[in-house]
Design a protein that fits this description.
Elements: H1 3-26, H2 53-68, H3 71-85, H4 88-101, H5 104-117, H6 122-134, H7 138-150, H8 157-167, H9 171-185, H10 193-206, H11 210-223, H12 228-240, H13 244-257, H14 262-274, H15 278-291, H16 296-308, H17 312-323, H18 330-342, H19 346-354, H20 362-375, H21 379-392, H22 397-410, H23 414-427, H24 432-444, H25 448-461, H26 466-478, H27 485-498, H28 503-515, H29 519-532, H30 536-548, H31 552-565, H32 570-578
Helix pairs in contact: 1-6, 1-8, 2-3, 3-4, 3-5, 4-5, 5-6, 6-7, 7-9, 8-10, 9-10, 10-11, 10-12, 12-13, 12-14, 13-14, 14-15, 16-17, 16-18, 17-18, 18-19, 19-20, 20-21, 20-22, 21-22, 22-23, 24-25, 25-26, 26-27, 26-28, 27-28, 28-29, 29-30, 30-31
């Protein structure tokens, strides 16, 4: 079975689930980056308990800070009083303020305070589970969800297991943790016990224990054959085991207990495709479309399903009505382009790609079109196409130039790429994205002077360009140019004032403080950056600083997590060469 079909099945059924599992982190309030209400704290719980003078002053300060947009100060004020009075409502109010702060560590501090004051409250537990999931700490996220289960609540464990596998995390620790939970709790009378069994079967199947998973599901089917989730899991596992007939049977059973459920119709279509029964698959997708008339996104998704298994005609039948409609979705033109390209109709594909309107598929369509022409030994046509597109779409000028630069680099034509970039900057000398691109190319080739010159031009014209400030400051810090470290610090601190929630800038702050010989001051910034964006560069910085502070076990844990998370980890490898004792 093509791996893309398995991936499509898991992704298609898991997207909504990710929203559910992360929903706790979003549910306290609207995003602070949307339109701010006059009083962003208006939806928070009221303050009802009596206070002494100090408490009243602290809470008034927090209230006014929240109304002024100083959410960090508001959060800390509420949390101080929540701990003083052991008041869960104040901790909840502090959590709301922290949500607006765009500071993950502050939010986690607030939610932990809320949870400590009210350990059985559902909302903080769900928030903590969501926060752990956001930073890819799947084991902690599972522990939080099991705590919910032990309190008699629904932990969405099967959905969690699906998402964990989709993320690529190691499922064995999750499987063993869930096994301990099942052995300790037994079948019992928990209303959602089946959910833990399904999650366990999913993890067992994914780790080579398929027979155990099947026995577990067989046992569950004897007493709970009415559960749609049971048949959904059986169908998915059968698809992944390349057993389309079993998948089809399970999906049919699922439709019997949940008539019209679109998930089972989709699984039936996938099973039929695996069996080569395209006509039968189309019957199921037609049923889906008839029940969701006018749903263009569904039609696009189904077309992608057929394309992944190379059923071009079936995909085309779904897409043609869309491209001929009054408001054709850009994705339909993109997919029609891929079909034409697959069939060797280069010029026809080009026509479709050109019709993809500005949006999420716009640049991808131009990239695909240009690559297609280059692969057809038509480099000059590819460059002419991109030049015309720049004239047609002036608002995307910089991105299209960058796209051509990337393609020329990929073709081994760096000199031509440099000439294009220099020529366009001669015509538009204040184009910040192109100046930034040229600066980064100079940095890649060790030309610090050229990089600094272009970043300096950006900063001179726009002193509030946080990206340029951070890039220059970080480079100076990373190169450890001793006489310029104070300058680097000032640049990065200015960038942080402009974008206080940026993990990249927090990482730069921590790194420059470390270079200045102050690892204690550096650590909180690196921890905050890592909590928001646990990439390998931040991980390498955090591990090095933890090691310098003689917190060796924590440093090794960060390295171990990063090695598990990434297939390639050159920055961690470089760190291990310098500090081999960090190896887990």
């Amino acid at each position: 079975m093509p791996s893309t079909l398995i991936r499509s099945s898991r992704q298609g059924l898991a997207v909504l689930g990710l929203t559910v599992l992360l929903g706790g982190c979003q549910g306290l309030a609207s995003s602070p980056f949307g339109t701010i209400q006059e009083d962003p704290m208006a939806s928070a719980p009221p303050i009802e308990r009596g206070l002494d003078a100090e408490g009243l002053a602290t809470l008034l300060t927090a209230e006014f800070a929240g109304q002024r947009g100083d959410y960090r100060r508001a959060t800390l004020g509420y949390l101080a009083m929540a701990e003083r009075y052991s008041a869960a409502q104040l901790a909840e109010r502090g959590t709301l303020a922290a949500r607006f702060s765009n500071d993950i560590l502050l939010l986690e501090q607030a939610v932990n305070t809320w949870h400590e004051i009210d350990p059985v409250a559902e909302a903080p537990l769900r928030l903590l589970a969501g926060l752990a999931l956001q930073r890819s700490d799947w084991t902690t996220a599972l522990d939080r969800r099991l705590t919910l289960v032990e309190q008699g609540l629904h932990g969405e464990l099967a959905l969690f297991a699906e998402l964990a596998l989709e993320s690529g995390t190691d499922p064995i620790p999750l499987r063993e943790r869930l096994r301990e939970h099942l052995e300790r709790t037994g079948a019992g009378t928990h209303p959602h016990y089946y959910d833990a069994v399904l999650a366990m079967a999913i993890l067992e199947a994914a780790t080579g224990q398929r027979q155990q998973a099947e026995r577990r599901l067989d046992l569950l089917a004897r007493n709970h054959s009415e559960l749609p989730a049971l048949w959904l899991t059986r169908a998915q596992l059968a698809l992944e085991a390349n057993s389309p007939r079993q998948a089809r049977e399970a999906a049919r059973r699922g439709l019997e207990v949940s008539p019209g459920d679109p998930r089972f119709l989709l699984l039936l279509a996938q099973a039929e495709l695996m069996l080569g029964n395209v006509a039968a698959a189309e019957e199921h997708t037609s049923t889906l479309l008839n029940e969701h008339v006018g749903n263009q996104e569904l039609q696009i998704s189904l077309a992608r399903l057929y394309l992944e298994d190379n059923h071009l005609d079936a995909a085309r039948r779904l897409l043609l009505p869309l491209v001929g409609s009054d408001e054709p979705p850009p994705a339909a033109f993109y997919l029609m382009g891929t079909i034409a390209e697959e069939e060797g109709e280069v010029d026809n594909a080009l026509l479709y790609y050109r019709q993809v309107a500005p949006g999420s598929d716009f640049l991808r369509a131009r990239l695909r079109a240009a690559q297609m022409l280059i692969e057809d030994d038509r480099l000059l046509d590819a460059r002419a196409f991109l030049r015309i597109e720049r004239l047609r779409h002036e608002s995307r000028f910089s991105e299209l130039v960058a796209l051509e630069v990337e393609l020329l680099d990929g073709a081994g034509l760096r000199t031509e790429a440099d000439a294009l970039l220099n020529r366009e900057l001669a015509r538009t000398p204040n184009d910040e994205p192109l100046l930034y691109l040229r600066a980064m190319r100079a940095w890649e080739h060790g030309d610090l002077e050229a990089m600094e010159r272009d970043l300096g031009r950006i900063i001179e014209a726009n002193p509030e360009n946080a990206s340029a400030l951070n890039a220059l400051g970080y480079t100076l810090a990373d190169l450890n140019i001793e006489e310029r470290l104070e300058e680097a610090r000032e640049l990065i601190e200015r960038a942080h004032e402009l974008e206080p929630g940026s993990p990249a800038i927090m990482d730069s702050l921590g790194w420059v403080y470390y270079r200045l010989g102050d690892p204690e001051r550096a650590l909180p910034w690196l921890e905050r950056a890592y909590a928001s964006m646990p990439d390998q560069e931040i991980a390498a910085h955090l591990a090095e600083i933890l090691w310098a502070l003689e917190r060796h076990e924590e440093a090794k844990r960060v390295v171990e997590q990063t090695l598990r998370r990434y297939d390639e980890h050159p920055l961690i490898d470089e760190l291990l060469e310098r500090i081999p004792e960090l190896a887990p």
